[in-house]
Recover the amino acids of this structure.
């Protein structure tokens, strides 16, 4: 009797001394919080989200129309950032432009994430012939320069779906795109072209996780396939997938800006920073404010996402030395 | 080695086939043709033009004809520039883009790798933080913003360099910096991270214990082994520069292939779009192959099989 009680007490003491188990996510979050640069990046992104969401209240003027006597107006007390070649207030256009860049960042990330995850999980989990075929396809698509594929796709979308035919599939697609100012096809373009790396990463992770003991154990007790996949394999590949996606986000912002710069992106008058740059650099000699503000805006945004992405990577992979 | 190169060249065949057929299908499923104009041409003329450029053949035949021509380096006539063949256009425009790409690659490597090495040697010093901030800036300012900023500072205000156009070596400076900065930043960051990892290897300790001078430990033992991850991104970086040239050539009014590509997509100049896309894809394939070969030179332990 006495002995058993003693043993129990000892066990309780020991268990108190062993550190509490932390989940991977909590540890990562702790490390992220301690990273000042990442926090700064996160705060800037938070501010940008607020600006984008509240653009209707924050922007001093409308972004669509300007007054002809304000053409090329330099910054003054009324128009803090001046006006563009159509007399539109640049500050308002920058503020509304945050919507475009941020939605390209988040929607682009989400679509390519989902396509990549589903493709990679399927390929890695089934293995064998399925895996072989699916991965050869990814290999070949990697040979296709992404931007060129996006350009071709955008030309295709823009001219195929530019019709006004209510009721038909084409008509509905073009109506959706028009109501989003041309963003819809940008999302599709980014989604279709950017999932390859994610698929490859996930598939590799699945192949290694699949052979781990805990998956073996789950299989041994008779867990069904879907449970193996979603309960045991997927959570363990999620971390690296998020890191990879966080590092890709600046790329999505750049795609949108690039497409709008060469005239295949948003429809005017939707204000995209890339489009503002392409309209501005022509008249730069005497009206530098036309390019300065969009350049500053897009650089700050990319800066913030780069810092946050770095922070997320360091948080999930502490072996990387700082 | 030879076997490896041959296998990689064979691997280019499916890539070219897939790239060309996707491009071909997308191009031809787009409504509107190369002969659309403000004032519609009579149908008879359009029919004749289509017959001249074989645009009235069935699609598969056009594709096969085109690929047969591609194998013989005959890329056909350009449609929107009636007097020139695509071969002429590539011969004229491609060297410009290649020179711009090489110059930016030079900027990226010659500045990026030393920056990374210095940061790694002086880890956590002011120099380290400074150069990592610089590379973060370089990574975050896209070339469509960097170009105008550089022009404004160095061409319009300081008047050190010409504003735009192409022709003499001094014209190359600003575009090359614009295009190279982001890749310089990438190289610097990866060099630093990879050096810091290699420094902890045991053979570095051995080298130090033998009394090798620290500078040689860093340059010969560490850097050489640290270069492999750097080479890995050289392939994608090269591809990025090719496409980045579309913007830089536009901003600086450089008569290169990137600027031309965007125009020909707008003009539906099918042969030019096909040829340029294929050349871009082939350039990427070749570059990736060179990168793979360079692994073996950097690290003789790597075998090609």
């Amino acid at each position: 009797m006495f002995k058993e009680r003693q043993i129990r007490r000892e066990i309780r003491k020991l268990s108190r001394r062993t550190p509490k188990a932390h989940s991977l996510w909590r540890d990562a979050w702790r490390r992220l919080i301690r990273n000042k640069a990442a926090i700064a990046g996160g705060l800037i992104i938070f501010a940008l989200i607020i600006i984008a969401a509240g653009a209707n209240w924050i922007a001093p003027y409308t972004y669509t129309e300007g007054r002809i006597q304000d053409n090329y107006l330099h910054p003054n007390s009324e128009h803090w950032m001046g006006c563009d070649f159509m007399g539109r207030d640049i500050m308002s256009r920058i503020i509304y432009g945050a919507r475009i860049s941020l939605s390209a960042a988040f929607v682009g990330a989400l679509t390519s994430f989902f396509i990549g995850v589903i493709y990679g999980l399927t390929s890695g989990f089934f293995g064998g012939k399925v895996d072989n075929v699916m991965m050869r396809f990814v290999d070949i698509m990697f040979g296709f320069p992404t931007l060129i594929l996006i350009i071709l796709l955008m030309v295709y979308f823009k001219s195929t779906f530019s019709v006004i035919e209510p009721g038909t599939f084409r008509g509905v697609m073009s109506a959706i795109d028009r109501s989003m100012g041309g963003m819809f096809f940008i999302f599709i373009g980014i989604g279709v072209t950017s999932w390859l790396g994610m698929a490859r990463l996930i598939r590799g992770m699945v192949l290694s996780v699949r052979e781990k003991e805990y998956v073996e154990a789950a299989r041994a007790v008779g867990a069904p396939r879907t449970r193996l996949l979603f309960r045991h394999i997927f959570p363990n590949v999620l971390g690296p997938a998020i890191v990879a996606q966080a590092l890709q986000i600046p790329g999505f912002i750049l795609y949108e800006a690039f497409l709008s710069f060469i005239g295949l992106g948003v429809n005017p008058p939707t204000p995209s920073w890339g489009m503002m740059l392409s309209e501005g650099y022509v008249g730069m000699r005497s009206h530098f404010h036309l390019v300065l503000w969009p350049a500053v805006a897009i650089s700050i945004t990319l800066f913030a996402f780069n810092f946050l992405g770095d922070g997320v990577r360091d948080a999930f992979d502490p072996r990387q030395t700082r | 080695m030879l076997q490896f190169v041959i296998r990689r060249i064979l691997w280019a065949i499916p890539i070219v086939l897939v790239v060309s057929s996707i491009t071909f299908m997308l191009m031809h499923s787009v409504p509107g043709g190369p002969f659309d104009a403000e004032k519609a041409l009579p149908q008879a003329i359009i029919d004749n033009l289509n017959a001249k450029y074989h645009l009235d053949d069935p699609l598969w035949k056009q594709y096969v004809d085109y690929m047969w021509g591609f194998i013989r380096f005959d890329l056909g006539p350009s449609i929107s520039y009636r007097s020139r063949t695509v071969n002429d256009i590539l011969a004229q425009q491609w060297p410009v883009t290649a020179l711009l790409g090489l110059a930016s690659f030079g900027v990226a490597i010659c500045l990026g790798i030393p920056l990374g090495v210095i940061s790694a040697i002086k880890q956590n010093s002011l120099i380290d933080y400074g150069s990592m901030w610089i590379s973060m800036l370089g990574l975050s300012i896209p070339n469509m913003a960097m170009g105008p900023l550089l022009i404004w500072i160095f061409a319009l205000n300081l008047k050190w360099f010409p504003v735009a156009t192409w022709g003499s070596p001094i014209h190359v400076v600003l575009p090359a910096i614009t295009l190279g900065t982001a890749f310089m930043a990438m190289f610097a960051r990866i060099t630093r991270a990879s050096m810091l990892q290699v420094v902890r290897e045991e053979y570095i300790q051995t080298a130090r214990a033998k009394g090798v001078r620290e500078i040689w430990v860093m340059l010969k033992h560490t850097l050489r082994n640290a270069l492999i991850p750097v080479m890995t991104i050289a392939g994608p970086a090269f591809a990025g520069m090719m496409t980045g040239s579309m913007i830089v050539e536009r901003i600086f009014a450089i008569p290169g292939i990137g600027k031309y590509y965007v125009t020909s997509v707008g003009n539906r100049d099918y042969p030019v779009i096909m040829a340029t896309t294929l050349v871009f894809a082939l350039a990427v394939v070749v570059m990736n192959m060179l990168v793979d070969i360079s692994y073996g030179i950097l690290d003789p332990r790597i075998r090609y099989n």
User: Anything to note?
Assistant: The CA atoms of residues 93 and 255 of chain B lie 6 Å apart. Chain B touches chain A through 48 residues (CB under 8 Å). The mean pLDDT of chain B is 82. The longest helix of chain B spans residues 214-251.
